[in-house]
Fold these 2 entries.
Entry 1:
Amino acid sequence: MPEAVEPKILAIFCNWCTYLAADLAGTSRIKYPANIRVVRVMCSGRVDPQFVMDAFAKGADGVLIGGCHPGDCHYQEGNYKCLRRFELLRRMVREMGIEDERFRLEWISASEGERLRTVVTDMVEKIRPLGPRQTLTEVTQ
Amino acid sequence: MSKPKVAFYWCASCGGCEETVLDLAEAVLDVVNAVDIVFWPVAMDFKESDVQAMEDGSIAVAFINGAICNSHQRHMAELLRRKAQTVVAFGACAQLGGIPGLANMDHHKDLVEAIYGSDAPQESWKSNGYELTLPRFGDKVQALDRVIAVEYYVPGCPPTAKITQQAIDALLSGSPPPKGTVLAPDQALCEDCPRRETRPEKLMIKEFKRPHEIVADQEKCLLAQGLLCLGPETRSGCEAPCIKGNMPCTGCFGPTSRVRDFGAKALSAVASLADSNEESDIERILAPITDPVGTFYRYSLPTSLAGGKFTK
């Protein structure tokens, strides 16, 4: 049995909502699992599917995109663009062998520090039983 | 002065790239006048031993098409690399991995089993005193530049006669382009699409359609008609023969220099055209795209960031 490895999750949070929620969680001393590595982007609409493919290709165990709730986007409709891409990208990475638990899009507003904890905790709990990821190359070696 | 020596070789390919050279039509005679073709298995009777006998670096340009699937293709690519001063990855398979690269969605052992069942061919056996061996499959299908160093790329499935002619002219001219160049314009196909003027300023799609479902208008932008055309992401240079035939672009010329992963970028552009802000509605609009990997990575899976299927 291989030793249980803590999943590493790339979190891409928008500057105006979800990143502030993470900030709020910090200042409010809300504890959430240390499995996420947060990258701040100005808007979830900035999340290029290449970022997601790159993360999975480099071995990330999960990718979490966080943006403003529908209607709340600082740039009017960046989060809708993110949602459209996510729908198709989720199907593509699923076809490529990534379980749905590993790839999530969540709307978390600046006041929802508690919700950030819930989402991150839930994601980590669902990914952990799946075990670490391997690429096809590693499987064949 | 002796003429520069040129070699053509094919690896995992369909033969379409070889057709392109013949499609040069009478211009092929100018090529033959300008160069000495020293190796071209599809058309001329040379053997591997003839290439082995040549001095290293004695071939000016080797055009290699096809992806690398097995040990023999790798061996030939390495041999031609030694013998040639310049290697050109010719066509989508050599440049990006191509259609054979979609095999990277499965393990090659599973593929062999699916095709041959329990009668998989042996790698070597003896018959009438001769020992015969078959090439071994690599772990995955690879583009040419993942196996040997490559100086230039000619895109396309297959490359057109025109860009082939231009590539040959450019390489034989006194001032070849910088190494690593893809020998086609570095802009999207939309830029020189004959239907460019009919593309709406703000393009949104309420319903994607597949080519057999509608009779497409001959003049209007195909994307605006709901057909999944990859022109906005695909490098130009082909002169849009598919569009002129009323069929959408499938992306065989690959990405422009600013894109790292063609499939992800093409998916991004296409998905954001879905004309809705409601999750269920977006799902419905995008549902006709039944096979995202086959659609967006059709020609480029081995050179994508993932390289193939992620497995657990």
Entry 2:
Amino acid sequence: MMAIRPMKSKSTSRLNPLKSKPMNRRFLSQIFASLTLGLSCLFVLPVHAADEAPDALIKRLSLDILDKIKTDKSIKSGDVLQIVALVDARIMPNVNFQRMTASAVGPAWRQATLEQQKRLQEEFKTLLVRTYAGALSQVGDQTIVVKPLRASPEDKEVVVRTEVIGHGDPVQLDYKMEKTPGDGGGWKIYNLNVLGVWLMETYRSQFAQEISAKGVAGLITTLTERNKSNAKKG
Amino acid sequence: MNFKKTRVYKNLSNLGLLMALLLLTACASGPSANPRDPLEPFNRGVFKFNDAVDRAVLKPVATVYVEIAPRLVRQGVTNFFENLEDAWSFVNNGLQFKGEAATESLFRFGVNSTLGLGGVLDVASEMRLDKHSKDFGHTLGFWGVGPGPYLVLPIFGPSTVRDGMARIVDSQGDIAGNIAHVPTRNSVAFVRGVDKRAGLLKATAMLDEIALDRYTFSRDSYLQSRRSAIYDGNPPDEIEVDKPTEPLEK
């Protein structure tokens, strides 16, 4: 079992309130964090992308994100913009959006024009990043355990199972991944399961509802409007 | 005497609820867009009602509670109720012959009730005793009882006919809900309700942002997550949803 439990002293109580830092230190740590983030993206990502095992990839990503949440207080305090930037930089390069969007849209995907497919991907991506951001902002002193991978080496598609362990029931967080060939290839996430709920399936009937009422163009409009009103909330 | 009497009344009112549910199941039929939700028109009505109650009362009260009560206190309250639920999880894991989960639930309850000062502190989690929440709906599902039509219960929200009926059994196994002293029981129920709603504030705010249709979103995620929980997070594939070429289920 690949347990990612950062060294954690037993004495830290789950009841400890967060210690607040003075503003200027927080600001500095923000700058430092974004610098580190930017730099590590430049150096770390290309090296790992090609031949990394799917569970190792998820482990690295999870550790990375968890670490970031713990060190960056702006993420902790729910600064959505910061989280969106983090997710965009770290998670998104490892996701196959086209497949995600296509499976959420369903059969109508093939009838959509290329331009519509592009727009759908953009808007759905914005919405999904938001979803993930919402989940991340609720992370506290949790640890993530990557469960043993049940797959053979020649598998092109795998499910990587993880658990977020903190207060209360462990939160199930699974990823469906596919192996993509070529440069910039490697394992890509194409579906996400939170607490037993596969996100693409959950969006599928909502999208179908929208498409049957207003067509693909209507779905794009709805998504765009939703993203706009979300952005206003900050 | 008093204790018994209130129990009988409670059972009667539960029975009334059950009858109403069964009648609805028998009569109502909508333009069934989703085979798992034949009661959609009725459900949407209850959903709307719940939403109105939530906006007017539950959410504002929970928001004020979060603002005035310190984090420590709120965590203690949450822990207290979750500890009581562990006792019921022990019973249900036992009914499903899940030895390890039952044992851990029992240990959690024992440790938190004593070392955790009556459940206010979650010492068991620090000791890496995992939580395994299971209610009677899970137990029925585990033994092969299908969920039946999706059902939105007034106030309680998403459920199914099976899970709604299982609630009656759950209420019997619920320690806090069976306190004999009525005023105490009601106050405890109030605090518990506020605690539950407060715990969901962030989730519902998120739902507002990410769902195109909150009714469909909460229905689909409820049905999926219940099914998943019955299989302990490992449900067999129901329909292949990830292949875009596959026709949409009607």
